[in-house]
Amino acid sequence: MLAERRSPRGQCYGPNVIARFEATAALLPPPPATILDAGCGAGVLTDYLGALGYDATGADIAAATMKQMRSPHITASIDALPLKDRSFDAVVASEVLEHLPIEVYEAARLEVGRVARETILITVPNRESLESATTRCPACSCIYSLNGHVRRFEAAAMKDLVPGWRLTRLREVGPYRLRHRTIEWYVRRRLLGRWPAGPQSSCPQCHYRQLGKATGEGPSAGGGMLRRVAAFPWRHRWWLVAKYERDATPDAH
Q: What is the pTM of this model?
C-alpha cells in the first residue's frame, strides 16, 4: 500500500519512513482503538493504521491534500480541532510540530491533550540541522526551509512538550544522521552560494515560487574529500517518537 503512495511533494515512502510508522503503531493502544492523526497531510499514516485494524481518522487544514485517503477525515487545523474533549483513545501528531508558527504551535500542544483520552504519540525530526534543507529566495533573498520547518527538537525538550501529560517512552528511529552532510551543506550554501531550488515550496516572505524541477547539490571534489575526512555518523537517529500518558496528579487538566 505504502509503495503506491507519494507525499504531497511527490516523494515515495521508503523503508525508513515505514520504520517510523511501525515504531509509532507499536506504542499505541491495541486495535480497534480510536486514533486521530492530527495534521495527517496525505493520510498515509492514517490509512496505515486503519489497515492494522485501528478506527483511524485524519485531520488536516488542507482538504485537497487528503483526497487520496481511504480513512475518514475532517478539514481542521491542529490548533482548533472541532472535536469533544477526550473523544479519541489516542492522538498522533507525526512530523507536524516542526512546521507550526509559534502561536499555532502553542495552541496545538493544548489541543492534542484535550482531544486524547489516554495516549498521545508525537514524532519529530531528531536534532535536525535546520541549515540542511534551506534555500534562498531568488526574488527577495529570504533564507527559508524547503521543508517548512521552523523549530528544532532534541530528546531533552520532549519531556514537557504536552501540558498535563507525562512522557513515558522516547525512542530514536531511522538511520543515523551523517556528520559530514551538515558541514558540507553549510559550505555549499553559505560560502559557495549554491542554494538548491525547491519548486514545491513558497517563500514565506514574498511568496515567490521557484519554477522548474527541484535541484539537489550533486557531488563535488571538495565534497568527496569532506566525506572521506568526516564520514562518520552523529550518534543519534533521524526521528524521535514520543509517547505521553495523561498525568494522574490532582492539578492535571
A: 0.80
